[in-house]
Amino acid sequence: MNAEEILAKLVAFPTVVGTPNHAIVDWISSYCRSHGAMVTVLAGPEGDRANLFATIGPSQGRGYILSGHMDVVPAQEVGWTSDPFALRRDGTKLFGRGTSDMKGFLACALAALPVLARQGLRQPMHFAFSYDEEAGCRGAPHLLAALSGLCERPLGAIIGEPSRMQAVRAHKGKAAARLEVTGRSGHSSRPDLGLNAVHAMAGIVTQIVEYGRQLEGAALDLQFEPPYSTVQVGVMQGGQSVNIIPDRCVAEIELRAVPGVSPTALLEPIKAALIALGESGYEIAWRELATYPGLSLAKDSALSSLLADLTQQQVLPAVSYGTEAGLYQQAGIDAIICGPGDIGRAHKPDEYIETTELVACQSLIENLGARLAA
Prior knowledge:
Layout: H1 3-11, H2 22-34, E1 38-43, E2 50-56, E3 64-69, E4 88-90, E5 93-95, H3 99-118, E6 125-130, H4 140-146, E7 156-159, E8 170-171, E9 173-182, H5 197-215, E10 230-238, E11 248-257, H6 263-278, E12 283-292, E13 295-296, H7 302-311, H8 325-330, E14 335-337, E15 352-354, H9 355-373
Parallel strand pairs: 3-6, 3-7, 7-14
Antiparallel strand pairs: 1-2, 2-6, 4-5, 5-15, 8-13, 9-11, 9-12, 10-11
Helix pairs in contact: 1-3, 3-9, 5-6
């Protein structure tokens, strides 16, 4: 099967983040085993989702990881001109949910597998395919926790997020949380008898906006746009009717931190403000939704030089989106981003990937395999 045929198979699995993924895991496992790969399926604590780890080449020795996620964002946006879960070709474009982000990379790795099997690798190549990356990298930590029992410490990890096949050395970290405030309802004519949860949350939001301004003058990393850590309120919901004192309000916030700054630590002042509100008669709840660290790979690292050589392009210093790469680096494994597709096409109707991008990615993987066979 070529990369386009494999991509059609992968897109047909509606692996929306937060839903069961055993069907795609079973198909990939069967395919990998049919080409001689050693496969381990790692069930997640959710019970209906799993990571997949496969090795081609010798079981011993240090090799490279090709890392990607099997989940996709929902495809409910208005504007799709064809079934999001049926690959459609139009000229050199292949349309479907996940084509760029990031089943295109998975398809290239799997299409290269028969070639890797014939190359006689002296060092292993590993496929690490995760679940629920789109929910804040929830699956990868479980895979990384088991990695020492699956292989020797890898020489590096290539995270195949869409970068138009130009390698990238850095991205920001992220933390997200849900804040909930519960007050006391009543008739709007007697606000003195109730506790308005929306008003209380508005006070917290005002503090968050001011905190964001303070972050602009804190740690700077000029590789990024903007060059500082950021925070925003992305969701705020509360109230039933204009004449009812709202007794509940929920807000969801996201913080993006420059590398070297803990995104979770940056959430602490906001959490403290919520706790302080709880001392004034309101009930409060705090739930962390997602967190992953930033990535910062040295410009002169061996992995950066390798990708510059393989792509014949200059390595980009940074991108604004996040990936699982920071988790690999946190685990002591050098990581870099490089994959087919464009992040600008992701998470929108008529997501697509170019056939030339698939060819370039598969070629890179096979050329890496040739080096491991030398």
